[in-house]
Amino acid sequence: MGSHMLEVDPEIAVTKPKIEVHHLGIGDREPPARMVFNTLEGDGLVAAVVDMGNRFRCVVNEINVIPPEAPLPKLPVARMLWKPYPNLSTSAEAWILAGGGHHTAFSNIVTSEMLRDWCEMVRIECAVIDKNTNIAQFRNELRWSAAYFNAKR
User: Fold this and answer.
1) Which of 47, 104, 124, 137 holds its CA 20 to 30 A away from the CA of 9?
2) pLDDT category, 89, cuts 50, 70, 90?
3) SS (H, E, C) the chain
4) How many other CB atoms are there within 10 angstroms of residue 125's CB atom?
5) Do 141 and 127 form a contact (C-beta atoms < 8 A)?
């Protein structure tokens, strides 16, 4: 499940977003106005750039956005439900191994190949979790990448 309160591009909405004001529940602030909508379905990705101390790594997980099984009235924000590739267990383990953060960017336009190219251009590491991810192989790729980036220093 992905959701966020404020800075979400309404272009990914299934229908025209509604603007709603709801109690925030944290801090001592006035209730904010929020865009409320579900996102388009289909293939996409989530990505996070993380600081590894001596380099940056872009962690990418290919996903399939699916419709929610029921209305989500208690989640009055921009939201989506997705199934990560290759499956939840492998995806979660790989994401944690790669150091992926909880602040991600979502796209249903940008591809993993585009992000790999971008990482190459800006000289940062790229770890992609996709339909073919195997944890043993993924661990090795992270080790090889760490050796490569540490040798370049």
Assistant:
1) 124
2) very high
3) CEEECCCCCHHHECCCCEEEECCCCCCCCCCCEEEEEEECCEEEEEEEEEECCCCEEEEEEEEEEECCCCCCCCCCCEEEEEEECCCHHHHHHHHHHHCCCCCCEEECCCCHHHHHHHHHHHCCEEEEECCCCCHHHHHHHHHHHHHHHHHCC
4) 20
5) yes
